[in-house]
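S.,

As promised, the magnesium ion run. Input:
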Amino acid sequence: MPLCIYLAPDKKFRGRVLRRSNFHTSHCYDPMSGTPVFVMNTAPERQSGRKAQISNITAAKTVADVIRTCLGPKSMLKMILDPMGGILLTNDGNAILREIDVAHPAAKNMIELSRTQDEECGDGTTSVIVLAASILASSLSQLERDIHPVVIISAYNKALREALGIIDRVAIPVNVNDDEQMLGIVKGALGTKFVSRWSELMCKLALDAVHIVAQNSQLTSPESQATSTFSSTTPTIDIKRYARVEKIPGGSIEDSRVIRGIMLNKDITHPGMRRRIQNPRIVLLDCPLEYKKGESQTNMEFSKAGDWARAQEVEEEVVKAMVETICQVGCDLVLTEKGISDLAQHHFLKHNVSCIRRVRKSDNNRIALAVGATIVNRVEDLRESDVGTGCEEMRVDKIGDEYFAILAPCTSPRACTILLRGPSKDILNEVDRNLQDAMSVARNVIMDPRLVPGGGAIEMAVGVGLAQAAKRGTVKPSQGKEGTKENIITGVETGPFLAVAEAMEVIPRTLVQNAGGNAIRVLTELRAKHTSSMSTFGVNGDTGKIVDMKEYGLWESASVKVQILKTAVEAARMLLRVDDVVQAVRKERESGGGAPMPEEMMEAQ
Ligand SMILES: Nc1ncnc2c1ncn2[C@@H]1O[C@H](COP(=O)(O)OP(=O)(O)OP(=O)(O)O)[C@@H](O)[C@H]1O
Ligand SMILES: [Mg+2]
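Predicted complex:
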């Protein structure tokens, strides 16, 4: 580990020993002797000042260029080969970016944005990258005009506040119980996806699943209250946990369906047990149903010949007693997260009880929710009230090549399984991703029932609104303080403010370009419409022409758009604040391995 002594003229640091695995080029002069003192390693992996900013912006633009063609209904798919030889076929922004191996730190940062968007909203992962890159690109001209990044950032803050105000003004409320309206929204989101051919079916699947899971959330369970940081009135719809997608290659996509209950990739443990039970009484355990052996080496000493046999008998009796205790509550089906010994299976069979072993913890939780059972972790603690009776039928079916236990339909499921069928694994994976998007959209609308016009209409409305604010010289006051410094756009901030307005147009422009239209003509016309307060006009992504979204019927969740804006502006603000890129760990470049350095990436463009 290199050790350096910092001999800076600054008294504060003089004589301090700085220890770090690897420092990079930087030196200062010893005031006494005038000789340079090297503080960091003299490696070339460092960029500072304007060069670093330009490099970051170029990297961000490069990332956006990769997925620009994936926006909108006429989007292209990307085929990505992973190092293991598998292929990924998708047009989902996040799915593409997370597979790409990038070296530039700013590019990595951009990819993080898309991941955040995916986790937060599940949709808009392409838009956020395209928008962030566009905002950054437009800040380049501001930097070239020698406007300090701090001024640009302050203008961006004001622009974001104004933009959120515009979204609030344009947004319209939606009735989340109106299935037709909800289907329309989910359809809009799925229209840009591979599954758009089956969009009717997929929308229904997504909406059914979210409705089933949403029932669960309205119940303010003590558990959800304890874990939720929000007020108890905020519903949290945990699709990831309670709506499981089971993908089985084979059949056709039309065979996909939502199971109002649980489906497990498990068979019963003994062939003699019942494979079909009406109104089963279900017991859920998370303990092993076998004789518990000593944890470490166990020695037993016997003095009489019969003692060995007795010891064996005792083991058997323990298992038998365990099974008897369980069967006393009158059950038909026992599921445990651990193992079930052959002997226990034998006794269960005698009591005509079916069992399934080694169920995943997450599956067990979902079953508990769906059938109304409680998971018990000691057989002795099992009570009548722990038995689940909310399931009408349990059956084991052979689908494709495998056996599946299906517990459905349930009276009030609150958790569900979506069975996806399709021609191949790759296609099923893409259908799964699309379905997740659709479910996220439905969830977002239920959580925040406000809609904004799609097809670039809201982005154009924000762009035009920002331009008008720049002309006025004021933005929407925060917390009612009018006329204060935060609400006035100063002369020097006007440029960056307008740059955000211009950057917003990237979404309608890309939609027109992807549809093969004439971007300049359409955008000029669209801008004119918005200037005369027709804020629902946008681009028809199929034809590249202007349409009124009220007639076209493309509405999107406002929460997704708000999140896109916030994330994109935040990312731009952060990257602009960087004026030095220093690499902390030097790669072994001599060995020929390692990823290219930022400069190489720049040159390669
Ligand atoms: N039929 C359509 N006509 C015009 N624009 C559309 C249409 N369908 C969707 N859009 C627009 O396309 C954009 C969304 O595109 P897309 O779904 O490909 O990307 P994303 O939502 O940003 O990312 P992802 O879905 O990959 O997470 C939105 O701005 C939406 O308004
Ligand atoms: Mg989308």
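The chain has four domains: 3-46+593-604, 48-172+452-582, 178-242+421-448, 268-293+308-394. The domain at 268-293+308-394 is CATH 3.50.7.10 (GroEL).

- D.
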